[in-house]
Structure formats: C-alpha cells, structure tokens
Amino acid sequence: MPRIAVFCGAAHGRSPEYATSAAEAARVFVAAGYEIVYGGGHVGLMGTVADAALAAGGVVHGVIPTALMDRELGHKGIQHLHVVPDMHARKAMMADLADGFVALPGGIGTLEEIFEQWTWTQLGYHAKPIAFLDVAGFYKPLAGFLDQLVATGFVKPESRAAVTVVSTPEAVVEAFRSHRAPPVRWKT
C-alpha cells in the first residue's frame, strides 16, 4: 500500500479550519488507499491527522525522536511508532517510508521537512511527489515566493514544477497519482 508523509504543525494554529482540514485530509488519504507517515506526536495537527486516519480505518506510521518521546509527546495509539535517536534520523526514516510528501499548515519544522524533500528531489536523491495543501490561503504567499525564486534565476522552472500547491486533499491525491517521476540519480 502506498504511503504519504504528512508534515504539519505540533500546534493547531489560530484558525479551527486548520484542524478541520487536517482531519479531512487524513480521511481522504486513507480513502484513497494511502497509509499515513507522520512525526509521531499526539499534539497539534499531527495528533489530529493521526486520530482522523485511525478513525477512518487507516494505518499510521509515526516517527519520533527519543527526546520528544521522553517528553511524552508520542502517540501511543497508532499501529507503528518508531522511536529514533534524533531529528536527522526521523527525517531519513520518514523519507524512506513515504512514497510522497505533503505539507499541511505548520511552522518552521514543517517548512524545513518539506523543503528538505524538495531539495532531495532537485538533487536527484528521489523522485517522489511533493505538495503543499493550501488551507485557507495559508501557503499562497509561499507559492508566490517560490515563483519569485524562478523569476530571479535561483530555481530552475523544472525544479519549481516538482512542487504542487493545491487547495484540497483530493487534488493532492490526483497530483500524486498523475506524478511522472524523473529518473533518480542518487539514492539516499
């Protein structure tokens, strides 16, 4: 069964729409046949995604660093909870477990995780699909900035095209299903 890595906040954010959309995304991904890979926490949008996926009958893989598990932030109700030494090991395992990556609303960690996957795509380490789920315009300013990176010559158009910005979880599924992967030059 394919797996989708969901990067999102350990907080709920200020709008209730973020949590509602996170739960809906999890239900749509499970209904489309995806297992969920995520950061392993029970808090914020991460916990919302895991709980909604479980309630929809989905399989959830969490990957959490020991330091966060020690702070009792791990979700003990999911089927697969991998406790790893640090954030580097977390990101590597999530990349290995996932067939694609989506960013829901979140903070610095969410951006860092999805941008690392985009960088790995650009470098040819993997050819997995990447999407931003633009809930209530959350990623609209970022999408404009990504286009500016192309316009100013810092990102090639084909690298920008590797990232999809969509407004519904159904569009994420469609983008992943229609993804045409370029050849992988290196393995991580």
3D architecture notes:
Helix 1 runs parallel beside helix 2. Strands 4-3-2-1-5-6-7 form a seven-stranded parallel β-sheet, sandwiched between helices. The protein has a single domain (3-177), classed as 3-Layer(aba) Sandwich (Rossmann fold), CATH 3.40.50. The two termini are 22 Å apart. The chain has 188 residues and is an alpha/beta fold. It has eight helices and seven strands.
Defining key terms:
188 residues; 7-stranded parallel beta sheet; 45% helix; alpha/beta
Helices and strands in order:
Layout lengths: L2 E5 L8 H16 L3 E4 L5 H12 L4 E6 H5 L9 E5 L2 H11 L2 E4 L4 H16 L6 E4 L6 H12 L5 H4 L2 E4 L2 H9 L11
Parallel strand pairs: 1-2, 1-5, 2-3, 3-4, 5-6, 6-7
The fraction of residues in strands falls at 15-25%
Number of helices: 8
Tally of discrete structural domains: 1
The stretches of 5 or more residues where confidence is low (pLDDT under 50) are: none
How does the helix and strand content classify structurally?
alpha/beta
CATH class assignment:
Alpha Beta
Mean pLDDT: 93
| Strand order in the sheet with the most strands | 4-3-2-1-5-6-7
Please give the number of β-strands.
7
Radius of gyration: 16 Å
Distance between the termini: 22 Å
CATH topology: Rossmann fold
Helix-strand pattern = EHEHEHEHEHEHHEH
Instruction: Give the second-level CATH assignment, the architecture.
Output: 3-Layer(aba) Sandwich
Describe the sheet with the most strands: 7 strands, parallel
Q: Give the helix proportion (percent range).
A: 40-55%
Q: Which of globular, elongated, flat, extended, rod-shaped describes the shape?
A: globular
